[in-house]
Design brief:
By secondary structure, the protein is mainly α. It has one helix and two strands. Strands 1-2 form a two-stranded antiparallel sheet. A hairpin with a 4-residue loop joins strand 1 (93-97) and strand 2. The longest helix is centred in the middle third of the chain and has 84 residues, at 2-85. The chain crosses the membrane at residues 6-28, 33-56, 62-82.
């Protein structure tokens, strides 16, 4: 009878130790999974930030190209107006801004 009780106690202790080891392993695996999920989320945030920065850079480049095209158009229009205003011997002409754009006008001087 004493041997049976001792064997039962040893079996109980072994079962408790095995259960504790399994619980510890499961907790460690859950921590590893949590760390992996956090790393994946951080990488996704970094990727989103990189995409946002690239979009901002592309938009800035497009705006820069549009501004340069507008400046070139304005310079060409001004050059055409200035060339049309250069009439030697016909008085002094100046460039005035009328309702729709720059035009040549006779100066009062």
């Amino acid at each position: 009878m004493v041997v049976v009780v001792l064997v039962m106690m040893v079996v109980m202790v072994v079962v408790v130790v095995v259960v504790m080891v399994v619980v510890v392993v499961v907790v460690v695996m859950m921590m590893v999974v949590l760390v992996v999920v956090v790393v994946v989320l951080v990488m996704m945030v970094v990727v989103v930030l990189v995409v946002v920065v690239m979009v901002v850079v592309v938009v800035m480049m497009v705006v820069l190209v549009v501004v340069m095209v507008v400046m070139v158009v304005v310079v060409v229009v001004m050059m055409v107006v200035v060339r049309n205003c250069l009439n030697p011997g016909k008085g002094i002409y100046i460039i005035e801004y009328k309702g729709r754009g720059y035009v040549c006008a006779k100066s009062d001087a």
